[in-house]
Each structure stands twice: as structure tokens, then as C-alpha cells.
# Entry
Amino acid sequence: MTLAAVLAGSIFVALNVYALLGGADFGGGVWDLVATGSRRGRQRELIAEAIGPVWEANHVWLILALVLLFTCFPPAFARLGTLLHIPLSLVLIGIVLRGSAFTFWRYGGGGHGDPEQRHWGVVFAVASLITPLLLGTTAGAIASGALPAGGAETDRGFYGMYVAPWLNPFALSVGVFALVAFAFLAAVYLTLEAEEPELREDFRRRALGSGAALFVAAVLALLLSPLHVRDALIFASWALPLHVLTGAAAITALAALWYRRWRRARIAAAAQVTLILWGWALSQRPYILPPDLTVAGAAAPPATLRLALAALALGTVVLLPSLYYLFRVFKAGVGPPTTPQRPRQ
Amino acid sequence: MRRTRSTFSNLPNLPYLPHLAFMSDLLAARSQMAVSLAFHIIFAVIGIAMPVMMVVAERRWHVTGHEIYLDLAKRWAKGTATLFAVGAVSGTVLSFELGLLWPRFMEFAGSIIGMPFSLEGFAFFTEAIFLGVYLYGWERISPRAHLWAGVAVAVSGAASGIFVVIANAWMNAPAGFELQGGRVVNVDPIAAMGNAAAVSQTIHMTLAAYAATGFAVAGIHALFLLKDPGNAFHRRALQIALIVGAPAAVLQPLSGDLSARHIAVHQPVKLAAAEAVFRTQAGAPLTVGGWPDVAARETRFAVEIPYGLSFLAFHDPHAVVKGLDAVPPEEWPNIPAVHLSFQLMVALGTYLALVSLWVGWLAWRRRDLAHNRWLLGAIALATPMGFIAVEAGWMVTELGRQPWVIYGILRTTDAVTPMPGLVVPFVTFTLMYCLLGVIVVWLLYRQILRSPTMPEWKGFYMPVRSRGNVNGRKRGREDQAT
# Structure
């Protein structure tokens, strides 16, 4: 395995973790938007409490993937920025509105349940719906190989060059898929976060529903996919084992939800989404941007790659314990809150 | 260096498309970048310095046991939570915009200067993790662990700022690569990070962060103290904010001297524009104020201090200072803009430094700062100054580098995206940032108004003469606040 492949893999790992953690934060916003029934206030409170301490850290996985991409594969970053300018700008607006509105809602005024603050909650929720849709759409544009080098091909015009690659049924179906996947992950995680049985049941129903919807969205994306993508996804040597594993993870997740094995459901759902993402990565190998930009061809000089790998190793040594600490503090079900005490000197 | 463009065969060459007429795509891209940077830098600077103040307050709570410090740390933390989030998302916008607006720059520079961005990514990650722990962990972890989480936020915040500024310094003093026929070879990212501008720029920006934030916070609390000098909460807050802001403001002119001597050697055009020096000359005077008349090649209405510039730039009154005539006019930046920004930055920085010396003198004489109305007025006046100076300083360094995006290597015109219609994202992002800015200011204003006149703290650590109005005229405010 070459150095460039290792780094491309690392970038994809960062994207994968972003999908599992940051994606679920977006999914939480979706459930906030569609919260209904007499418990909608408590549902929203649960979602906000689950997201609050971790969303900023989860968001950084995307930035990490981005900076590693432009350090290690500058031509790929340049081409993405050029041809996907419009959807990426929209993603940015979504990210800004989601993050700001969330903190305005939670920190802006007095109490959290403040109805005056609720309009920020609505902005947060709507941005949480649109951003994954557009993120998935850009992923679809990349996967479909619609981002070739320009060069001689100058007759495509503005629409053909900057709009058509992502505004098409396949790319949009990938957007829908991403949205449903994030919502599914969020619902599964929230069954674990909820302490009240009714809330847990609310999110169990949502998880089961979105799990089923995820299957439909996957089939839809596959049907709409360009022929070469579909061929790679079906006939490659790795395809069959991967699909069997993905299917097993999906069935495990739904069965675990059905039998209320929350932790097992969480692991299986995360595994399911991870396997699907790696299916995408494998299907476009050896290209970082199909149809013509390979991982090796886009790679920065070896001196940069070696240093990036060293930084990655060093960063991991700092990050992993910190992240472990963050999630242990907020996601391990610590006992009831106590008032802060000054340490004895 | 025009040939660089032809090497980017990876990017599409567009046919001519008529774009929206009132703004060229290049100007729109530059404006969007400027707005994004100008917006983000405020929150970035606050994100670097506020954690230090929170940690100092919390540490004092640990040591003294007075709840006033805990309350202070918590209130500051609440404000910081909003500001940090806006900083995080606007920083994301900037890192994407490098590719959305300047893909040719990133294609050229990514492998050389991506390294500090990657390190910044990790530093920012650490910052975000421990900020989450700090803001939400008051009741979940031990006080000692909580304080250390704050320290981790402060350290990683400073580190991420430093890494980003190193990348910017490289654009001013490119290093760590060679050009062979327009192709980048022999890339050495370590040498790129060790570029000639890195040390002076990172010191200048880090000090600026502490000085600007320290004085902004001190100024707000000074305003409250002008109305209510006995308020213990604001007295403590003022003290801690000045501990962070004042030393930085005193050191800043020294660091400015380092920067000026650097650009005198490495970026003479930038210095010439900042000082509006049209003619290369020995024993150049220091130009204070004035309006550069570019057509006439002279600066009108300026006060000139003989030999001043040669002395400041080279520590030698007879040294030769390169003027704008050293390069052809098409390689000049916008001279009035750079000159005025520079003058503004220096004037505001000088004011902050003088006020800091005043504060230091009074503190050394053990005088009561909160009853010195002249001093409080001077500090209150300084509230926005640090931030204006930061913005002006970035104008100097960014506008002063034009027409280059990488000084002497790549022109800004050759770095911009080929996508037409860039005025649309420029207007969209500008409107979004205006809206966000208004909301943030309004929310902070409300939150600050809510802050505190705690009756039980009125007599706390006060000089005797201020204890008189403990239960006095301020009751109305408290009722309003609750």
C-alpha cells in the first residue's frame, strides 16, 4: 500500500467518523423538526442535550478531512472547490445556520425552554435537514464521476459544468440517502440517551421507520446510479462479501431495535453506515475523483505525505484520549448532577 | 510569473461568460474572502483570549473560595459558548473558501503549506473537545479536571491561531519549495513553516488577540463601574480582563517593531505602502497621518518625523528605505487603503499601550482602579479599539501584499476560481454575516444587561468608602435583570 493510499484512507476514515457522529447531530435536528405529540418538548430537550456538548468536536472531523485533503491531494481539492462551488457554498450556509442557531437557541436567552428562543430551534432544525441533503448530493456527484478535468472540453457551459454534475436524480438520491442515514443513526443513538421509557419508545419507532426508509433510499440510489457505478457496486470481487455484511448489519440493527437491545442496535447501525461508505470508497478506487484523477496522480510530493502521516499519528495520540474523555464524561450515563464543589486546598 | 496558470491543466478553462456587470469576479472573490476573514477574526481572537480569563477567574475561585469568581467564570463561559460556536462555523467557511474561491492557489500551495492547516485542524479539534467539557461539565467532573479542561482550551486555542498565522506568513514570505519551469519541486513543508515572517507575525497576532479581547471585556466592565463603582462583580472582572489585556498591549509595540523590521527587508513594497513612501531614500522620515496622493506621488497633510522611518525600520537613522518606485506601479497595492489602515492600527495600538502603562502605574502604586473615573473612561473608550486595530492590521498585511497572493510568486488574478457570477455568493455570504453579526451583538447585549449587581457581594473586598451604597439606588436594576 502506498503512502498516498494510506492518507486517502485516513481522510476517508475521518469522513466516516464525521458521518457517524456529526451526521447523527444533523439527524437529531431532523427529529427536532418533525417532533410531534404530547412529548415533543421533551423530545427536543433530549436531542439538544445529546448534541450540546459534542457537536462542535464532531464537526471538526469534517474540517480535519478537508485540511488533510488539501495538504495531501491539492488538485482534488482545487477541482472539488471549482466544480462543486454551488452545492458546497450551500452546505456552508447550512453549517453556519445550524451551528449558530443551535447556540442562540441554547445560550441566547434565559431558560432553555424559553418559547421566545424557539424560532432559533426552527432554524437549527431546518438547516439540519438541508445540510446533509446537500452533503450527500456532493458525494453523489463525486461518486458518479461527473467531475472531469476541463481542458479541451469547454463546450459544457455554465450549467453543464457547475450545476448538472450535482443537480441530477442520482446525486439527489444520494443526498436523500445521506439524510435518511443520519436520521436513522440519530434515532438509534437517542434510544440510548433517553432515560424515560416513553421517550425511548418514541425514538425506537423512529429508528425502525427510518431504518426501513434507509433500505428504500439505498435501492433508489442504486437504481438511479450510472451504469459504471452500478457495475462496480455489483460485480467487483469485494462486492458480494460487502453486501452480505451490510445486509447482516442492517438486519441486526433492526432486530436489536425490535427486541430493545439498544447497545447492540447502536453498534450494528454504525457498522451498517460504515460498510456502505466503504463500499463507495472501494467502488471508485483507484480514483480520488473519478473519472480521471487517481489517488497517486493527485498526491502531494512524498515529503509532504510523510509529514502529514507523522502529524496524523501525533494528532491521533492527542485526540483519541481527549475524545474518549469527552464521550466518557457526557455519554456514559454519569450519576445525577451535583453542585460544583471547590477542591480542598 | 504569468506562466503559472498554464500548469493547472487539472482545472477547466472556461469560455468567456458575461458576468454581472457591477463587480468583477476577482473583486467579488476578494471581497467575499475579506468579509469572511473580517467576520471570523473577531470570533477567533475572542476564542483565543476568553478561555484565559475564564481559567484565571476559576482558579481564583479555587484559591479564595469566593463564589463571585465562579459566577464570573460561568458568565464569561456562557458568552464564550455563543462566540466560539460562531467562530467555529465561520472558520469552516474560510477553510472551504480556500478551495471555492482560490482553487489555483490551493493547487499550487496545498502541498507546501497544508501542514500548518492540518496541525491547526488537530489543535482546533482539541479546543472543541475541551470546550465541550468545560461548558457542559461543571457538574460532571471534578473542579480540578474542569480547570485543566479550561487550560487545554486556552492552550489549543492559541496554538490553532498560531498555525493559521504561520500559513498566512508563508504567503508573505514564501519558502520551502523551488520553481522549475513553473512547476513546484523540492517541497519542504518544515522549511515552509519556518518562513521568515512566521515568528514576527505569530507573536503580533497572538498579542493582538489578548490585548483586543482583554480591553473589550475590561471596557464593558469599566462602563458598568462608571455607573456603579462599588460593584464587586465588575471590579473583579475588570481586574482579570486587564491582567490578560494590559501586558499584551504593552508588549505589542515591541512586536510591531519586529514586524516592521521584517517587512522592511522582506516585503519593502508593503512597508512603502503602509508608510506612503513613494521615493527610495536614505534617512527616510516617519510619516504620521496624511493622505497619499498616488497620482502626484506624494503624501499630503502628513506630519513627518525626520529620519524616523529609517531608524524604526533598520535601527539606523541613515539607512536606505525602499520606496514604491522600486517596483512598477502595476505592482503597487492600494496605497491609501494600506496607509490609512496602518496609521489606524498604530494609533489604536499606541492608545491601548498608553492606557496599559497607566493601569500598571496605578496598580504598582496600589491605587484603586475602580474609583479613578478618568481611567475607567479611558478603558471604556478602548472597548472596540483592539478589534478595530486587528481588522486594520489584517487590511495592512492582506491589501499590502497585493497584487500577489503568494508574494512574488503567484498573482491573485491567477489564483481565483474560473467560475463566473461570484458576486452572487459574495452578496449572499455578506448578508448572512451581517445578520449573524447583528444577532450576536443583540444577544450579548441582552446577556450583559442581565449581569449582575449581587447585593451580597457589594461589600466584598471593597475599600471602605465604596461600601456606603450597598443597598442603595441600584435595586431597580436587579429587579429588571431577574
